[in-house]
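Support reply, case 0932

Customer input (verbatim):
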Amino acid sequence: MKPPAIVPLRAADLDQTATAMSEAFQDDPLQKYMLPDPAMRVALSPGLFALILRYGLQFGEVITNAGPPAGAAIWLKPTEWEVTPERAAAAGLDQLPQVIGAEAAERFLSVLGTLEPYHHKDVPPAHWYLFVLGVAPSAQGRGLGRALMQPVLDRADAAGLPCYLETASAKNVPFYEHLGFQCVVETVEAKSGLRLWTFRRDPPRKPAAI
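Our regenerated output:
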């Protein structure tokens, strides 16, 4: 099967990509915890992902497929992977409570706060951070997820940098392991009961000089 063609996200395609990402995460455990009502999840998730995509465009790289967007990989750069209040405000991510509601935002940020200490501890400061990866259900099973990730994985390997990500979905675990990621932490967030995983992928070792 020919790999899907991938391209950098254009700002003009942001809203359509946000809709595809929303579809991808409708059954995600963290998304369901954040927005437990299915109708509200459908209505509000595109706005959430629009904010996240805008953040990725400003402080990282966003890769999507050629043609009508069916998903995206949002990577944060090795020098700007930490989501600080200043960066959030600059990209509009601080508008999250207004977009999805204060209670949903609090639930979302509480889970992310549980993961943050692991991120700082379990990977060197210089690394690529997979902020979000999502593929709409209608486009899954065709290799698009891997294709969206591969350009940055290749660049990280060439630069000798690790990659890092988190997930709250058990079905994602074998997918990331197949791409060379290794689980660093598996834990249960006390308040939500969510099972969470963190993953790290190190670049291949260079052969020793003879």
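We compared this against your earlier run and they match. Two observations from our side: The mean pLDDT is 95. The two ends are 40 Å apart (CA to CA). Please reopen the case if you see a mismatch on your end.
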